[in-house]
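User: I'm new to structure prediction. If I give you an amino acid sequence, what do you actually give back? Let's try with this one:
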Amino acid sequence: MKQFNGKQILLIIFAVITLNMLCSESPTPPQEQPPGPPQLIGLSLLTFRLPANTPTEVINTSNEGLADLSFALQMFSRAGGKAPLGQHPDWEWKTDSFPYELIVKAKRLNTETVAWELRMDGGENSGSIVLNNWLAADGTTQNDGKSGAFKIYQTATTRIDAEASWTLDDQNVNTIHSETNGKRFDYTGNPDASGNFSVHTTSGQKLFEANWDTSGAGAWAAYDAATGQQTGSGTWSS
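Assistant: Good question. You get back a string of structure tokens that encode the predicted 3D arrangement of the chain. For your 238 residues, that looks like this:
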């Protein structure tokens, strides 16, 4: 076995101490900043659009399926325009929308998924329905709001009025599905401004369909809920 003299032992000890000091003084990696408040995509950012010359029959039928989701997202947007309270992962926004206070809550469940709540409170002495922190809508979004699913509740109750979901893919093709009034509405909007939507009963009977091309020209047809026979149709130009 090799023998070390006193000088060699001191050099070894010094080298070990120096190495430890260098390791301990190495810069620590910067801590990641927590993500900021989540964003909820609005209908204005989705690519589903009816052409300018769409007939009234088509507009009214389309609005029936989108009304609840549109209302919820507008209320979310109105409150979300204020400075948020709280911090990651729990966020809260509040704003007045006479005669109610709107309360939006968001919680990051993971890097992709956010849970949302919309509540409404107030109405006293206004002649309106009094809402006591009523849950108006809730659901989750993924991928920065480009996909999500929500439940919208009947006013001042816990009964579901509508369920809706949407996706906006990497090609900006938008799909929306909504169930309300015993019907299912399915919408597709393309980035070239073409699109279509259809309406079925919850049992699958087709009630209505419409489609249009990039120029804005389209066609529609309505069907009897009991027999499936066509009861009306039409076209429109760009």
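You can read the tokens as a compact description of the fold. Here is one thing that stands out. Residues 43-236 form one domain.
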